What does this fold into?
Amino acid sequence: MDVDALYQRHRDALLVFLVRRTADTEVALDLWAETFAQAVASRHKFRGRTEAEAAGWLYGIAKRQLALYYRRGHAEQRALNKLGLERPPATDELLREVEERAALQDLRRDLSEALSALSEPIRDAVQLRIVDELPYADVAHSLRISEPAARARVSRGLAALADLLDPIAIREATTT
Amino acid sequence: MNLDAYMDDFGRDLHRAAHTRRSRRRAARLLLPAVPAGAALAVAISALPSGGGGVDAIAAAREALAPDGEIVHMKIELRHGTRVVMPSEQWYAANPTRWRTRFEGGVIGRRSGGNRIETAFFKDRLRFYDAWTDTVTIWRDAKLPQAGASPSMFGGDPATDLRAELDKGDVRDDGVVSVDGRQVRRLVREDGQYGFKRRFVYHVDPKTFEPIGGHMSFRRRGGKFMRGPQFKVTLYERLPLNARNEQLLKFDKTLDTRYVWR
It folds into this structure.
């Protein structure tokens, strides 16, 4: 498995995939870095031979990371720690560039329309965090709940909206 | 830095990690602290009062570790991978500087039969207490062991080492980042040591500047990377400085405790 080649082929598309699944550029960058770190750490387990199989394997790792994020409310950093890697901090300018590449503004618009399907506590949390772009601390303060609880509600909400997000993300992942 | 350059940078780190994993693990094992007490003394001495300064975040982080008129009580777990190598507990007061650090349990504690080891500093004297032999060894200032005799890398006393790292100056404020789902302020200090570029990363609460955790890493010449120990602050509290709490800065001795002067 040539991890360098895999990284070069999928680094942009995978980031877009994750941004559009989380609607949070910082979280998406954490998941993106952890996914590639997992790929490096477990590359000896890959049994495929083709580029398509390698892509499927990589996105499988990314989806597992996403599932963990939806469940726990924060991105894992196990492989990054294991390898001694650290995702460099992102400037505001860089986060804006990530948002533009992922067309996150459009997604936020779509999300705000789909929010009505959620229960009120979950909808409020997703609305404040994703649509209004408030930090988690402010979301927690507004809803009078703890910050971990606010994270959990947002990630549960996003998981419930996966029907909306999935087709976009999968299309982008498979057209690269 | 634009996104392409950002991704190029991370790609280079990933490439290095992919090609150096085995040697990094072997070397990292060698860097595990072998004798906590000796390392604790060396690290502790390096933290005696010194100058320093920097941007506000760094000053605030230092202030959180050594406030006036209060005792800082911290519990810190030193980890290597998933193992807790050495849990420590420290009580610290400033002006004049005095502190007590207790090590007990963890991987190293189990190796030494669960022994409790304590170090304390006050009135220009460093004291070392071994509960197994119930002996206090006291170093007078003229005979203090030389600082830096062992690698400065949380070898024995993470709390004292934190203050030492911040006091050395040249600390960079990386701003607020997300770590394990929590917003933290990242302070970084880099220097050269023993042929390695050493990187000390310290995470503090972005509002209160209370310590959260961090890690040490090393980069060999040629860019090969090794992860050093990590530490996590499991308890941070400030206690009022009064006669009762002042006792926390001293050892729990027995009537049979022996004293050895060096």
Q: What stands out?
A: Residues 3-174 of chain A form one domain. Residues 79 and 85 of chain A are 8 Å apart (CA to CA). Chain A has a mean pLDDT of 82.
